[in-house]
Amino acid sequence: MSDNRTLLTDMAAGLFADLARKPFAEAWPQVAEAGFSTLLVPEDAGGFGGDWGDVLAVLRLAGLNALNAPLAEPVIAHYLLAKAGIAAPEGLVSISAPGSRVPYGRHAAAVVHVEGGTLSLYRADACSFDEGLSPAGEPWDAVTFTGAAAATAACDVDLQALGAFARVAQASGALEAAFTLAIDHVNTRVQFGRALAKFQAVQQAMAEFSEEAAAVDASAAACAAALDYGHASFEIAAAKLRMGIAVDRAVPIAHRMHGAIGFTIEYALNHLTRRLMGWRSEFGGDAFWAERLGRRVAGLGGHGLWREMAARTDRLVG
User: Which part of the chain is the Acyl-CoA dehydrogenase/oxidase C-terminal domain (predicted)?
Assistant: First the structure.
């Protein structure tokens, strides 16, 4: 845990709460000014000097508040550029992995692309974007690189995996927020003379919801610890797949508890659940991560899997 995490999360919690549901044009300048992009950049390079646990804490708060601005993408981009010794350009820097769209691509001053062991930095004038939207209505654009890269470097980082970790971290916050909304609703909504929370079927559904949210929390924490240790491929694959299961189970419960009100654009729930459904498929969907995890497990075999799990647990807990 970094020494300044409490200060960091206090600042992020206040800012993101103020920016909740604000449009990109209003939210992004304040996020950029706060300097979150340099969370993983060393202090001697002008950054915050944080760790992946700090990133998890901040991304979780972004998901909890349905922040309508990129945060994970510039954090990862600046981390990769600092690791490669490339100066980050001014403005929003987003990320691109093979087969994935670019979050907020149309607004980016530059894009960091990683493929085949090479990192390439493309400025906006070397990119063409086919604009699209995520289920939450956020920019999610396909990119074609039409010009030469401004800089390149060797890179051994799995960008797809880092993007997947970011979505798990954000989902952990969004699930907590959705659960809180559902709890508040069933405790105040009265049917047949009783609060909804008094009905056994509602209690059972909310218990299942809490289990799913807790599973994603634990998965995200394991990923951050493994990333700080230096080897997180196994944890990220398992976490992204587990997040997909949680979204599949928890989102319908949240909406069943709310009834029709949960779908209205004025109500906060759909701003969380639409993001959750989109994040499930971003940076690799369930099938992608199930195959990657399955191949890893099959390659280890029964005894090998046990030894691997025990060794990873010892490293992360110890």
Answer: 165-296
Q: What is the DSSP letter of 204?
A: H
d(Cα 2, Cα 24) in Å, to the nearest integer? 29
**What would the DSSP string read from start to end of 127-163?**
EEEE--B-TTS-BEEEEEE-S--SEEEE----HHHHH
How far is residue 260's CA from residue 274's CA, in Å, rounded to a whole number?
15
The yes-or-no verdict on residue 222 having pLDDT over 90 is yes
Look at residue 21 and give its three-state secondary structure.
coil
Q: What is the pLDDT of residues 103-115, one digit of tens each?
A: 999 999 999 999 9
Question: Is residue 224 within 8 Å of residue 244, measured between CB atoms?
Answer: no
User: Any idea where the domains of the chain sit in the sequence?
Assistant: 5-154, 159-317
CATH topology classification for 5-154? Butyryl-Coa Dehydrogenase, subunit A; domain 1 (1.10.540)
Q: Are 168 and 239 in contact (CB under 8 A)?
A: yes
CATH ID of 159-317, from 3.40.50.170, 1.20.140.10, 3.40.220.10, 3.90.10.10: 1.20.140.10
Q: How many C-alpha atoms does 236 have within 13 Å on its Cβ side? A: 25
| Chain centroid to CA 205 | 25
Run of H or E including 254? helix 233-258
Tell me what the mean pLDDT of segment 46-50 comes to: 93
Q: Is the pTM of this model over 0.85?
A: yes
